[in-house]
Amino acid sequence: MENKQFYIRVNGQEVEVTEEVYRAYVRPVSALRRRERRESRCLVKGRRYGLVRCKADCGKCPYYSAGNKLRGGVLSLDALREAGYDGASEEDTERDLSEREENSGKTAALHKAIGRLTERQKEMVRMVYFEGKTQEEVAAYYGVSKQAVSNAMQRIYAALRRNLEKIRKN
Length: 170
Prior knowledge:
This protein has 3 domains: 1-39, no CATH class; 41-87, no CATH class; 90-169, Winged helix-like DNA-binding domain superfamily/Winged helix DNA-binding domain (Arc Repressor Mutant, subunit A, Orthogonal Bundle), CATH 1.10.10.10. The protein is built from 7 helices and 4 strands; from the N terminus they run ββαββαααααα. The protein has helices spanning 19-39, 62-65, 77-82, 90-115, 119-130, 135-142, 146-169; strands at 6-10, 13-17, 43-45, 51-53.
């Protein structure tokens, strides 16, 4: 078996490393280069799968030859500025801020309503909505049927609606 040596260039000097370290270093760099090459290609309409990356020579492309930039490249703020887009208007910004404030108020009310649930109900909400568990997984955790969890979730929704109504009235 041939004993290969692996080197990585660090600050202009080649440093000998193990194959494991070399591969751990080279894979992300190679993946980044492949991604950059792929994204530098135009997006064209494919026969079966919608938009696909062009595989033709960009030098022969009439779109590229006409002085246009690549279609499908990654957008940047500089490219948007060059295209004449100077940002959102004050109305848009104001509307976005008011929507954010409204949403944060709704979120705070929802957290307060969840806080009024029983510990088991809170745990079920956490498992389903924050941990992404299915009702089957919750049922297996508690040792009950899926239907029992479904019924419990219906009761939780009703309790949350009642709690939110009480919070809105106060």
